[in-house]
Amino acid sequence: MKHTFLATIFAAAIALPAYAADYTIIAPAAPGGGWDQTARSLQSSLQQEGISSSVQVQNVPGAGGTIGLAQFSSQSAGNPNALIVGGYVMVGAILTNKSPVTLANVTPIARLTGEYEAVVVPASSDIQTMADLVAKLKADPGAVSWGGGSAGGTDHITAGLIAKASGVDPTKINYVAFSGGGEALAAILGGQVTAGVSSYSEFESQVKAGTLRLLAVSSDERIEGIDAPTLKEAGTDVSIQNWRMVAAAPGLSDEEVAAIAADFDKLHQSASWQETLKTKGWADTYLSGDEFKAQLEKDVSATQGILKEIGLVQ
Fold first, then answer.
1. Which of 111, 114, 109 has its CA nearest to residue 21?
2. CB contact at 8 A, 68 and 28
3. Which one of 21, 35, 43, 60 is most buried, counting C-beta atoms within 10 A?
């Protein structure tokens, strides 16, 4: 009878879902932006797929993600349940803020998504096309204010590249940085800036509602379902894609890193995550392991070159 009881307990135990970890994900920005959306989408899919029984999201905004990054690397060292989202914006912010903490101080797990930038103006603006915006920029670069994410991030780089491609000194642009997509969106809708630049998903609902006018997107070719020309098509030779990643804490064992990586490989293949990519309009640019680490090193080097070119880094 004792053996039967133990066997029953054992059978019940192995029948339960094997949750890898109760993760806490740091979104190093204010609510409403791309990193916050990414963290909360991960939270939903990790729980929905039974990969984790409990996932918490914490927002730690400021300085293009470098405040959250510094806090994460120091307070979460050795903790296999701690994660942080980041991406191209963070690469630029680390360089422009001369952050002593870099992505070398965390454990990269995977690149999750890619998304093109969008240039918008309020629906009430007299700017109807990208050509109109460029004409104003050429006439007086300082009079055209750009609202977007943190200094040195993808939005800032995009504005600088647009200026450069238009024959305007990119160091003369009037860029207004916001710590979160929600703050930037409010400023754009309120007419506090001339134009907004950010990932398309952050503007999509307002574009569809008719409160924002979409001038162009930064893809090489037109994107299905988005009624706007590319920057190149509009006469501005710029193409750029934002990407987002997830990283684990420093100081983990190889076994712990492998377990986290396995969770995200499983997440990437799941139906709920693939549906999230579709509904958010995020490109599936998944890359993990050594391949992602190698690509990350290339991206850091390339970003440094771009930031020097547009005068954001010496």
1. 109
2. yes
3. 35
Question: End-to-end CA distance of the chain, in Å?
Answer: 76
pLDDT in tens, 1-34: 545 444 444 444 443 444 457 999 999 998 888 8
Instruction: Please report the pLDDT score of residue 20 as a whole number.
Output: 56
Kindly give the pairing relationship between strand 283-288 and strand 107-122: antiparallel
SS (H, E, C) the chain: CHHHHHHHHHHHHHHCCCCCCCCEEEECCCCCCHHHHHHHHHHHHHHHCCCCCCCEEEECCCHHHHHHHHHHHHHCCCCCCEEEEEEHHHHHHHHHCCCCCCHHHCEEEEEEEEEEEEEEEECCCCCCCHHHHHHHHHHCHHHCEEEECCCCCHHHHHHHHHHHHCCCCHHHCEEEECCCHHHHHHHHHCCCCCEEEEEHHHCHHHHHHCCEEEEEECCCCCCCCCCCCECCCCCCCCCCEEEEEEEECCCCCHHHHHHHHHHHHHHHHCHHHHHHHHHHCCEEEEEEHHHHHHHHHHHHHHHHHHHHHCCCCC
Token pair in block for residue 21: 């970890």
Ranges of the chain with pLDDT below 70: 1-20, 180
Position 175, amino acid: Y
Partnered with residue 146 across adjacent β-strands are: 175, 195
132-141 pLDDT per residue, tens: 999 999 999 9
